[in-house]
Amino acid sequence: xxxxQLKEIIKSEIIExxxxxxxxxxxxxxxxxxxxxxxxxxxxxxxxxxxxxxxIDENGTVYVMFDDGLVGGYQPDxxxxxxxxxxxxxxxxxxxxxxxxxxxxELSGELSEDVDDEEEPKSSEIKDDSxxxxxxxxxxxxxxxxxxxxxxxxxxxxxxxxxxxxxxxxTKIKKELEALL
Length: 181
Description:
Layout: H1 3-19, E1 32-34, E2 50-56, E3 62-65, E4 71-74, H2 88-114, H3 123-126, H4 131-154, H5 157-180
Antiparallel strand pairs: 1-2, 2-3, 3-4
Helix pairs in contact: 4-5
């Protein structure tokens, strides 16, 4: 598939998505969901955390299991995301944004050819550092991982795979840093 064809397909998908009328999406069993930060009646205080839908009962209550093994029951509308029809002005703004994004991607591609990637330090290199420096590096690593997770949720295809690979690398580094503390 040519690059121009791919761009045209993506463009048409974006326009179709933006033109959709009001609709709701609800999770299914096995889906990963994030508990909204603004949820005031969270039974197990997991606002902002992600878990896996394990069961949906006949009343529609969605049971979500989190990494720590806790399971919380949530009303189905907790996860509903309203999608509204886009205006022509919004579509035009999105087109302009996409053009700027393409320019940025081209420039970053040119820059990445000129700059060598820095390798992450190995645990043996870090052992001589103070606890403060290790803690600071751990905090930076966690922050970068959080940023990558947000980007991962919005990405598709090759970009998603690159982000996943980087997250795996950062996880290894995080574990090494935690072992040093």
